[in-house]
């Protein structure tokens, strides 16, 4: 399927661009199907492309000194990654992998740089995005400093709840929550440890799974309290 202007307009970061700029980007873009666990961005390697996720799910990952994989953030449909290539030739420090079969759109970084020059709104969006990502990564690193596994899991769930859209946030819903394995990677914990914490939270009626697409936070105050107690 060719990349069209209408397809690019599905990405919020590109919606401020005029149609003629989007047409130029579409001509230089390619749509690619990738398999689960495919490496989308190789950490430490300069990339000439930005990756926009059309369908599926991606995750930014890094590795500890002993070689364990640690998840840093998720990339959902409508979002993008690899943006550090816009600023210098050093590449992303972390890698980005596919958590499921996904469809991505690759747009040359050089073409995006040209498009940015005609859109102050896009520049502002990139600045906001960068600030948000720095704060997110800082908070994620702080979670790893907690020795309490319960506090880590509850902290991760609280952060995800805060990032939901207004409707889900109001109703205490985390849409498309990560699996226990994915949470374990983010928190440097085993899947079994995450499962035990979830069993406790469910027994205490703090959380409840609603299929695979929703996690219901039944008691926000209790969840936040377990997070904020930390190692205390």
TrEMBL record:
SUPFAM superfamilies: cAMP-binding domain-like, Winged helix' DNA-binding domain. Gene3D superfamilies: Jelly Rolls, Winged helix-like DNA-binding domain superfamily/Winged helix DNA-binding domain. Pfam families: cNMP_binding, HTH_Crp_2. GO terms for molecular function: DNA binding; DNA-binding transcription factor activity; kinase activity. GO terms for cellular component: cytosol. It comes from the Bacteria. The keyword Kinase applies. Residues 13-133 form the Cyclic nucleotide-binding domain. Keywords: DNA-binding, Kinase, Transcription, Transcription regulation, Transferase. This is cAMP-binding domain of CRP or a regulatory subunit of cAMP-dependent protein kinases. It comes from Marinomonas fungiae.
